[in-house]
Write a structure and sequence with these properties.
Helix content: 40-55%
Bound molecules: manganese (II) ion
Order of helices and strands: HHHHHEEEHHH
Largest sheet: 3 strands, antiparallel
Distance between the termini: 31 Å
């Protein structure tokens, strides 16, 4: 197995009450594990074997649906776990906050734009804070397991922050109330990790 399901750096119940332990356990040990296994299956024995995930995603338009869906699923969840944590929330500081203020006007305006992107993504997908090639910050969303590293993405760049808006990310606790899950998510963001990705 070339790609490995990462352990979380916190317990499944560490994000409660915002994200419940049962959702975290199923999401990580079942959903993310399945994307990882299926991604490895799609890559093994192909010309992609041994390549870095970023390189595979950058050329994903030329590959199979299995690589696009499961490679995206593998990468997106690794990022999602890493930018959350217990004791998170609040606001970023320093250069990242300056860049957010410059791009969106204020942190509140950024929060509003990101939350709207997450809430209005039809069906399953993700919302993103992206650092574009010219260094500017942009909010976007993608369908299914697509992401900004893919050559076919509408908005391309380095993903700094993301939220999973597939129903499996919130349905046990929030049922159809996606906006409540999105609002809760702001309490578990690990801004130190987002800031280190920005640099
Ligand atoms: Mn998911």
């Amino acid at each position: 197995m070339s790609f490995k399901l990462p352990d979380l750096s916190y317990d499944y119940n560490a994000l409660e009450p915002y994200i419940d332990a049962r959702t975290m356990e199923i999401h990580h040990s079942k959903h993310h594990a399945a994307y990882t296994a299926n991604f490895n299956k799609a890559v093994e024995g192909s010309s992609l074997e041994g390549k870095a995930i970023e390189e595979i995603l950058a050329g994903v338009s030329a590959g199979s649906a299995a690589v696009r869906n499961n490679g995206g699923g593998y990468y997106n969840h690794v990022l999602y776990w890493s930018i959350m944590g217990p004791g998170g929330g609040g606001e970023p500081s320093g250069e990242l906050l300056d860049a957010i203020n410059g791009a969106f006007g204020s942190f509140a305006d950024f929060k509003s734009q990101f939350s709207t992107a997450a809430a209005t993504r039809f069906g399953s997908g993700w919302a993103w804070l992206v650092k574009a090639a010219d260094g500017s910050l942009v909010v976007s969303s993608t369908p299914n397991q697509d992401n900004p590293l893919m050559d076919l993405a509408e908005v391309k760049g380095t993903p700094l922050l993301t939220i999973d808006v597939w129903e499996h990310a919130y349905y046990l606790n929030y049922q159809n109330r996606r906006p409540e899950y999105i609002e809760a998510f702001w309490n578990v963001i690990n801004w130190e990790e987002v800031a280190s990705r920005f640099k």
